[in-house]
Amino acid sequence: MPTHDVLIIGAGLAGQRAAYAAVDAGASTAILSKVHPVRSHSNAAAGGINAALNPEDSWESHAFDTVKGSDYLGDQDAIEIMCRQAPNEILELEHMGVTFHRNAEGLLGTRAFGGASAARTYYVADITGQALLHVLYEQLLKRHERLDRYEEWFVTSLVLDDDGRCVGAIARDIRTGTLETFAAKTVILASGGGGQVYKPTTNALICTADGIAQAYRVGAPLMDMEMIQYHPTTLAENGFLITEGARGEGAHLYNADGERFMEKYAPNKMELASRDVVSRAEQTEINEGRGFPDGTIALDITKVPRKRILEALREIVNIGRDFAGTDITREPIHIRPGQHYFMGGVKTDIWGRTPVPGLYAAGEVACVSVHGGNRLGANSLLDTLIFGRRSGEHAAEQAATMPRVSIPQARLNDEQRWIDSIIARDRGGRRISAIKEELGQTMNEHVAVFRDQEGLDKALEVVRRLKEEEKTAYIDDQGAVFNQDVLAAIELGYMLGTAETIVLGALERRESRGAQYRTDYPERNDDDWLKHIDISRNGDEPEIEYSPVTITQWEPQERTY
Ligand SMILES: Cc1cc2nc3c(=O)[nH]c(=O)nc-3n(C[C@H](O)[C@H](O)[C@H](O)COP(=O)(O)OP(=O)(O)OC[C@H]3O[C@@H](n4cnc5c(N)ncnc54)[C@H](O)[C@@H]3O)c2cc1C
Hints:
The chain is an alpha/beta fold. Among the domains are: 235-337, Succinate dehydrogenase/fumarate reductase flavoprotein, catalytic domain (Flavocytochrome C3, Chain A, domain 1, Alpha-Beta Complex); 425-525, Fumarate reductase/succinate dehydrogenase flavoprotein-like, C-terminal domain (Methane Monooxygenase Hydroxylase, Chain G, domain 1), CATH 1.20.58.100. The chain is built from 16 helices and 19 strands. The chain has helices at residues 13-24, 59-69, 76-96, 128-142, 210-217, 245-248, 262-265, 275-287, 306-312, 314-324, 380-399, 409-423, 432-446, 453-470, 484-508, 526-529, and strands at 3-9, 29-33, 49-50, 110-111, 121-122, 147-151, 153-160, 166-173, 179-189, 222-223, 228-234, 252-254, 297-300, 333-342, 345-347, 359-361, 366-367, 531-538, 541-548. Strands 1, 2, 6, 7, 8, 9 and 16 form a seven-stranded mixed β-sheet that branches. A five-stranded mixed β-sheet has the order 17-15-10-18-19. A four-stranded antiparallel β-sheet has the order 11-14-13-12, covered by helices on one side. Strand 7 and strand 8 form a beta hairpin. The protein binds flavin-adenine dinucleotide (FAD). Residues 9-15, 32-35, 37, 40-42, 44-49, 128-129, 154-155, 190-192, 202-203, 206-207, 210-211, 241, 340-341, 363-365, 378-381, 384 line the site of flavin-adenine dinucleotide.
């Protein structure tokens, strides 16, 4: 049984940053990922990463913008930490080898992003996530003596000991189908978000909420799950993202009547208001009949000089050409709001600790909470790095004080029986893909930019029916080698459990705040709802509790852009 001080589940930016920190703190560390690390979803991050690094900017300004962007649901102690530590993190990454864009003077250059009062987004063209991921991976390769990498291993469950402490995980080697227990003194979940709960989504097929569901199953509370970000600019057909960097560079939004409609909704910030505001504005235009017949509005990037588009936005030139048949340097592209990001996740403190002893979480799987009701663009990469590092440091420090742990063989046998039973299902039930399709469409219809009681009740009913149907859903592949079918079945279970908590949170929060807009409760109600919603599993039933929002220096105000 592989045994380590620190086990990190997930090798995106949060996991890799945690591994780097844990190894440097002296811990024997393992990092495990269901895909090769540089194929993690962080690879898709395009527009950039925020930091108040310019002398005329300040961490306080970044923090205030983040608090306001969160619609005052973000915890201000965590936001302060993130924004204070951002400049050093960017410089450290630069020193590691990230080739951030430089301006004409040769200094690190920025672009504007939504909801920010200064241009503070650092970037590498529109492949920022890829650049960061590759540089961090090189650093991990250099640390091979203290770091074991398990690439293409799929974690199926977390393991607790009899005292309720997390002591490791069980994982399947995707190449061979072998199941193994990984014992560890501390475990960091860095397994990303779950956009695949929705259809369409900007998220890759691997974003199936595994870590969120695994933590929930062992009793960790999930916080603010109702806060699902719809990004304003996604392709209607397939959910592909057109980065906010396009609007940061100067692109405009128009309805079908040729009006630059953001003048009505956010006269000061226009297209660079925060994402919840822009997505609601677009959806209102579409719902009120001012969209195009395909249910979209137009993003006009031709406002940006062609040379600059080709230099700074070359990925979306390719996306426009290959997936929408549009040359964005010459004509507007049709877009609409699409599911993009989970602000909620596994509840943690500012060191990444969850309430389950020994279990940490960082990155999109976690809710620390720096994003509250709405994440500002380019704050997620920052969140992964700052809280990935902090979790790695703390988990290593904790592990240094603890005795070696082990996991009984019986636990592995139980897991093997569960997986074998999925593979052995007969063909009486529905296909996994059919259930997933119905889930995604239901969530996108009823738990989207606008929500109400009737739609949410309907969504809950469908999700609960699908949870029953999932128990008998069958798979085609009964082999051991690269059996993606059985993994898809396990992922479906994670997604359905997670979807239930999203709908329950949205039903519970009877107000409108950030990404949660209830047409039946259209006002923000600080008196009753300036609080987090925590959902835990009590037996098989979800249980809802509340926890206070931490306010350090920014009292809630009316939010306008
Ligand atoms: C198209 C797109 C563009 C974006 N652009 C930006 C941007 O410009 N700026 C910004 O700040 N944010 C951006 N974001 C958001 C940001 O990219 C993500 O929130 C962030 O990268 C998540 O990083 P992570 O490390 O938490 O998770 P991920 O990068 O998703 O990594 C998750 C890891 O967990 C592993 N894993 C998952 N489940 C299991 C399992 N069961 N067993 C083993 N391993 C598992 C995966 O293999 C992977 O290694 C963008 C998001 C999208 C979708």
